[in-house]
Amino acid sequence: MMKKLLIAFFIFTISSKAQIEFSVEDSSVVNCSHSSFSLGMYSTGISFGNSEKWNGLRINISDCDVKEVNGINITLWNPRNNRDLKIRGVALGLATAGKSINGISVGLAAAIGRKELRGINIGGIAIVGGNIEGINLSGIAQVSRNRILGLNVAGLALVSKSNIIGLNLSGLATVSNQNVEGLNIGGLAVVSRKNIRGLNVGGLAIVSKENVSGINIGGIGIVSEESIYGINLGGLGLVSKESISGFSQALIATISKNTVKGVNISGYKLETDNFCGINITAGWVELNYLNGLSISSFHKIDGIQKGIVIGILNITEELEGFQFGLINIAKNNKGLTQVLPFINCHF
Predict the structure, then answer these.
(1) Whose C-alpha in 29, 85, 197, 347 is 20 to 30 A from the C-alpha of 152?
(2) Beta-carbon-side half-sphere exposure of residue 318 (alpha carbons within 13 Å)
(3) How far apart are CA 305 and CA 310, in angstroms?
């Protein structure tokens, strides 16, 4: 049940990601006047009004079809038809918007860079852009058509169609169409269509279509379509279609369709084809192959057991080691030695 819920959450989050849009820029065709009162010459100095290109300090009520500003640009209201604007320096306003902003961008509502935002980017509600790089702080969300890179903090969500890399903190979710790498913390979840690498913390879950690696902490669970590596603390469960390796802990179950390696601690069940290492599970262990030490109430090994199992009821098709328990069944032993109390062995 837990697995189905987490996969459903993954599918819902990824499918809805493309619907997240935020824009305060008017895309309609607007006829703009570039009249201004300027102190300076050769487009350099101080400008009041809608100057098309300026170097220095530029102050305007609402930017409209501006092309380039080098210096400080202050706009007091919604920009309009500003798709080609390039700002190098400082952009301040209700909403800073353009093709690219390199430097410092502070929008009381939003900071928007259609191609890129690079530097220090602060949006009271949102940061929206192509590439978003640097120190990026937003009250609600950061939404990128390409990558988000650097120190990235959003009150609700970080959402990218490409990679999210760096120190990534979101109150609700961090969602990437490609990789999430670095220190990745989502109040609800960290979700990726590719890999999640680093120190990964999801209040509810960590969900990846490919691999999860590093120190991985999911409040309810960690789910991977491929492998989970490192220190894996899954809350209720760890679920992988490939392998789980390292130190793994789950209150209910560790489930892998391939291999679990290392040290595993599960509250109820370990279910995998192959296990190598040390396992402690309160309830049930179901395997095809075991190499190492396992402690559980019930062991059912459908293939080969190499090593030691300790439990109440231990059943092994082919034993190459020891069984310690109330009832020990080794089907490759002969006669009465197939079923023995307390201890059974075969070499």
Answers:
(1) 85
(2) 7
(3) 12
